[in-house]
Amino acid sequence: MSELETRLLDRGPSAAAAPKTELPSHKWTMLIDLDKCTGCNACVVACHVENNVPIRSEREVIRGHGQHWIRIERYWEGEGDAQRATFLPMLCQQCSNAPCEPVCPVYASVHSERENLNLQVYNRCVGTRFCGNNCPYRARQFNWFAPQFEGPITEMLNPDVTVRSGGVMEKCTFCVQRIRRVEEDALVEGRPLRDGEMVPACAQTCPTSAIVFGDRSDPQSQVAQRLGGQREFQVLEHLGTAPNVYYLKAGGSDGGAG
Amino acid sequence: MAEQASPESPVWNRPLPDDPELAAQVREIREKHLLQDARPPGEVAEKVLGPMARLGRVFWLAFVVLGGLTATWLVTWAYQAYQGMGVTGLNRTIMWAPYIVNFVYFIGIGHAGTFISAALRVLKFDWRAPISRAAESLTVFALLVAFTMPLIHMGRVWKFYWMLPFPNQRQLWPNPRSPIFWDMTAIFTYLTCSMLFMYLGILPDIATAREKSSGWRKRLYTVLALGWRGTDREWKHLDTTLNIFSYGIIPVMFSVHTVVSWDFAMTLQPGWNSTIFGPYFVVGALYSGVGAVIIIMAILRKALHLEYFLRDEHFNAMGKFLLILSFTWVYFYFNDYLLPWYHKEPILTVIFRLFTSGWAAPLWFTMLIANILVPWATLWSRKVRSSIPALVGVALLVQVGMYIERYLIVAVMLGYPELPFNWSVYIPRLPEILITLGVFAFVVLGITVLSRLVPIIPIWEVVEGQLLQGTRRIGRAIFPAKPEAD
Asked: What ipTM describes this predicted complex?
């Protein structure tokens, strides 16, 4: 009997004996410099394209059914001529202590300790929307209708990403499909991941490079280097959700506050 | 039970005293109190079973209208499931609203039935005897409806069984950390217990109905009576079982609305994560529930000519009960609102101002008037409590008030998360309105049909109560007296 036949006939022990490839763990972290954010919404568009996020009609968006995994929250400050807008790109904060996880009755919202990510299992979701309510950032997007992609857009769908069905919850994944790809590339080439190798769609598109992404556990990474400054803050830090998205306060040359 | 007058003079055959003054007193007592106004058991049974079998034009009209609304509910639900939850007015900030409001409301009115039939039974409040079954049927139908609400609101209702622990080849189980899982467990336990409790209590009456009916009803009751013959042994077992159920179901009842409140209190939503929510929801549930029982009592009294059973004393007692619950509810409400008003946490202040002077102010003040002002201004008066239209009016207002209270908590507060960019207002659309109307209709339809199928007044409990009652003469006055039964 060849080795293949042995394996096929007796899968149990040989499968257990097969060498296990331990994937290295990462602390994926995003850093958004609000001083650099111009509120151009390019990240929103990039995210839609990369992640097959459904595009809703104007009427639906007005009704609050728009689905954007990342959005630019715009806040106005000051009065009259002195009034200026500040922007806060808001996406899933990939909380280490995520409020959305314990409330899901079917374990559709689960945590990956290895990747420091908050995962959403689309085909397990039954649509109770408890997670969406319990997300203080309102980062979770519900498919109020089954998604419809028209015309040539169907040709542009990303084959690495599931197209979700109606009635399920979805949210920013930190472009987990890209994370997987670079991890596997590194595994095949037998080398550790390089900083800057993994870039999510929003960071890739940001014209001012306001979004920096990387592995916080690597002290040489750009993210780790830039963390810990005075401008650093986390949104709703007091709630104890321990987000993995950090922001740098704006305080630009025009003296504006962020 | 022997029905002819025996030499020992059974309770329904007790002569009036010879003294005309004392006789007048006894007559007055009999007129006031159902349990003093004993009649032969056969006559009591006839007063319940007679009207039950006569289906008049009003019944069929109600049946068609309520049935139509129920059908509308089911059709709308199918439409919503087919189209997607987007047909409702929900949005990305307010992901729960209409159905969860209904859910809390119906679980709430489902509490009164158990409280009246179990807690008051244990405490030996005799006046509850004729009310208990109507209250229990309200519990059962309200819980059935409440059970459908989380299903109606699911994005993929056809996968609802994934929330149940069933063995499957992938070894996937529901998440025991989720309040929804606790919720399902608590409600399912409560629904099962309530149905069993109600069915046990009905058994002797079904047997009575079996003896006194013919045709399809006789066949139905023969099956439902489970061969009840009324032997001493059977009565003893029934008494023991009902006692166990009464004590057992009370903690279940308290747990259910506490767990429902945890659906909210366990979250990070401002206004929801409050430690007082458990008892506050339980009291609110009893408050709206007792109000709903009063309404059902009045409807049944009119529809089934139950004037003999449901008297002023019952409405009076329920009115007092409603007033006490109103006080208790206000105590919790005050506690819940004093804190944000005092400590001025920014987001809670936003919600508080929204209620006192924002767009939600009309709702909030309507609720305060309906839940506090009107009950407190009227229910202290015996005249109001004994007048059925007035009491039903107050009870209806309490329903409106309590519905608004749940609406403010679920549909309004949820629109105000911590990041102001996401603030939103929920406006109901046609599907929610139709479904809500439909479920209300279904509860009324259920009780209407059930009241024609099973004796809605517990005949045996009334007869038993009458057997135990007597009068005692002290000087020139006669008082109702009840020997301690155990």
From this structure: 0.87
